[in-house]
Amino acid sequence: MTNPVEIINLARRRASKAAALEPILTWLPASLLTALLALTLKWSAARALGERIGIAMGSAALSRIHVAFLMLAGLALGFAAWRSWCAYHEADNLEHLAARIDAELNAQQEILTFAGLVASAGAARSPLFPILWRRVAEYLASFDPVRRFQLNKLRVLARAALLGLASAGLLFGTLVLVSRLERSPYQGEARRLVRLADEIAKTDPSAQELARHLRAAASVLTDPDISLKEKLVRIVAIKHALEQRGSAEKSAAQARNMAVAARGSGAGS
Q1: Average pLDDT over all residues of the chain
Q2: Which of 40-44, 183-187, 196-200, 238-242 is predicted least confidently?
Q3: Cα 70 to chain center, whole Å?
Q4: Can you give the residue ranges of every domain in the chain?
Q5: Distance of CA 254 to the CA centre of its chain
Q6: Burial of 51: CB neighbours in 10 Å, binned 0-12, 13-18, 19+
Q7: Alpha-helix runs per DSSP H in the chain
């Protein structure tokens, strides 16, 4: 005959385990994604990509957002742990679990009464216990706790995906908002310089140095951490470097032309 106490205890273990795992598996991916996205804000490649799509801001603002989203990831992990603890203790309650099984099997509260007697150690003194044992055993004969109390993987996956999308959307929205608040009046000029640098780099592989200087000038124009006076100083320095490079290239071209002309005149004589 089916042992109802063993089945109820197995159901209790399975239910509490599934209940504890669900919040962790739901919130953990979103927390890790939030932390990873916050860490990428420190990468120079991420800053360069942001500048190309019009999201540019100073290092101080990026640092604040970086710290804020790392804290958000930590809070999400803490919330997941708290929800897991609460769900575990709620599912581990014997009478609560017995009421769920009783309602599912339409047992007219006989399983609930049986669990109450077992929990109160009044089974040996109650003349109803042997009768309830047989009745509950009949109800639980076809009941499978392993199949009934398992983790709902589809629900966990859907919730984790939604939380991950919400986290990425929140970060992107924050970056856009802060970049608009810190928008430089030279943003348009900086974008044109970046586009020009990209075109030069694609069409003339030998002009990579020029493209690098143009990108540097665009970065200076859009950096809110640099004062207007410092911007002018750096732009003048970049312009001077470009002029020097142009003069050097012009001198080299003239020297090559003179050499060609000298070889031509020597051959003619």
Answers
A1: 77
A2: 183-187
A3: 10
A4: 4-181, 187-268
A5: 56
A6: buried
A7: 4-40, 44-52, 59-91, 94-105, 110-119, 129-139, 145-148, 153-181, 187-203, 208-222, 228-268
- Percentage with pLDDT > 70 across the chain: 65
Residues in the chain: 269
CA neighbor of 110 nearest in space, from 80, 138, 79: 138
- Joined together, the tokens standing for residue 169 give 């959307």
**CA torsion angle 104 107 113 117 (round to 10):** -90
Q: Does the pLDDT of residue 110 top 90, yes or no? A: no
User: Which tokens is 159 given?
Assistant: 């919730």
Residue type present at position 57: M
Query: Which is nearest to 219 in space by CA: 48, 85, 18?
Result: 48
By the 8 A CB rule, do 245 and 210 touch? yes
Name the burial class of residue 69, with classes exposed (0-12), middle (13-18) and buried (19+) by CB atoms within 10 angstroms of its CB: buried
Q: Is 228 exposed, middle or buried (CB count within 10 Å of its CB: 0-12, 13-18, 19+)?
A: exposed
Paired tokens of 168: 């990425």
Using CA atoms, how far apart are residues 243 and 233, in angstroms rounded to an integer?
15
Kindly state the tokens that stand for 230: 């410092």
pTM of the predicted model, to two decimals?
0.61
pLDDT in tens, 39-51: 887 776 566 666 6
